Amino acid sequence: MNARLSTALMHWDYIAPLLTPASTEDEYQALVESLDALLDSGAADEAHPLAGLAGMVGDLVSAYEQKHYPMPGEMSGVEALAFFMERDNLRQQDLPEIGNQAKVSEVLSGRRAINLRQAKSLAERFGVPLALFAG
């Protein structure tokens, strides 16, 4: 085994969390804190010895954010609604903001559009901009 690999193995318990995708909010927060510390130490400069690590940690943070905090411009209102339903383990009958289960089903299938009143209620419930559902 070469010397670099041997050294990495000796320190793997400290390195592994920085190279492992976050699967929980706590792991994500730890990655964000690590990235902040790396950037504060100058790793944003490509000549810095930890610049590559900062890039990898940044990619992991970005991947978690894209999965768990999608940006409004990246999805339709119906896609956002489906996302929030899955995230919060909601059923169609759990969305009185839209109406009864049949109306929710029509919205999710694209047969009915989300109206302004529904969009306002959904935005308030999920704490997101109105444009996510009204746009």
Description:
Helices cover 63% and strands 0% of the residues. With 135 residues, it is mainly alpha-helical. The protein starts with a helix and ends with a helix. This is Putative transcription regulator with HTH domain. One of its GO terms (molecular function) is core promoter sequence-specific DNA binding.
List the SSEs and their pairings:
Blueprint: H1 3-10, H2 12-19, H3 25-40, H4 51-68, H5 77-87, H6 101-109, H7 116-126, H8 131-134
Helix pairs in contact: 3-4
Count every beta strand, where a strand is a DSSP E run of 2 or more residues: 0
Strand content: under 5%
The total count of helices amounts to: 8
Helix content: 55-70%
Shape: elongated
Radius of gyration over C-alpha positions, nearest whole angstrom: 21 Å
SS class: mainly alpha
Query: What's the number of domains?
Result: 2
Order of helices and strands: HHHHHHHH
Average pLDDT, rounded to a whole number, is 89
Main β sheet profile: none
Distance between the termini: 57 Å
Uncertain stretches? none
Task: Characterize this entry briefly.
The protein is mostly helical. It has eight helices and no strands. GO terms for molecular function: core promoter sequence-specific DNA binding.
Which keywords apply here?
135 residues; 434 Repressor (Amino-terminal Domain); 2 domains; 63% helix; 0% strand; elongated; Cro/C1-type_HTH; core promoter sequence-specific DNA binding; Putative transcription regulator with HTH domain; Antitox_HigA
